[in-house]
Hints:
The chain has six helices and ten strands. By secondary structure, it is an alpha/beta fold. Strands 3, 4, 5 and 6 form a four-stranded mixed beta sheet that branches. Strands 7, 8, 9 and 10 form a four-stranded mixed beta sheet that branches. It is globular, with a radius of gyration of 18 Å. Helix 1 (6-20) packs across helix 2 (46-67) and helix 2 packs antiparallel against helix 3. It folds into two domains: 42-119, Histidine-containing Protein, Chain: A (2-Layer Sandwich); 120-208, GMP Synthetase, Chain A, domain 3 (2-Layer Sandwich), CATH 3.30.300. The chain is 44% helix and 22% strand. Residues 1-40 have low confidence and may be disordered.
Amino acid sequence: MHTFSRNTIGTLCLALAASLGLSACAPLVIGGAVVAASVAVDRRTAGTQLEDEAIALKTLSALNGQLGPEAHVNADSYNRQVLLTGEVASEAARQHATQLAQGVENVRAVFNELQVMPPSSLSERSNDTWITSKVRSQILADGRLPAKSIKVTTERSVVYLQGLVTPPEAQASVEIARNVSGVVKVVSMFEFISEAELQKSQAENAAHHAAPGNNPWTGPNH
């Protein structure tokens, strides 16, 4: 079992809020228990969400510290699976990045999509941000998809999709991303769950968060 100090939780809470587009970790009352609003719509457990934020921060710190300023790297984590994107100066640096990510605590898999080439320009990165925003907006607008459980990353107009989804949800998400203007390729990195597994997981998470003392965002009740 992993424990987090209140300061660590506060830092990760703010990082999680930023990544989810929330102004803060606003509380939501469910069955008498207070949980973060994101927990209600994210298929990961609250603990895994915190772990993912910690993993991403630690991985990026390790990469920036070891690969130097000539590298442009991004690190995203979903369900403790790390996605590396960006550019490095050599194949040796690319392989070293994998080793660094694998060495971060709680990481269970690393997908290295780093390219050996000069760093992307500011205009390219701005375009990637715009594409990510459009894909997210389209997924959210669809109404059938668990938008908060789908992570979108764009690098050089290539869209990477992560999340815990059913096969039909994955197919629909990929189709949406493919039809967004400016996207040159979509890479599906989803983990699949069945409808039965989804319903069971949602019921278990709801029961867990409703139980007294099981709120990882504020710590144990006293």
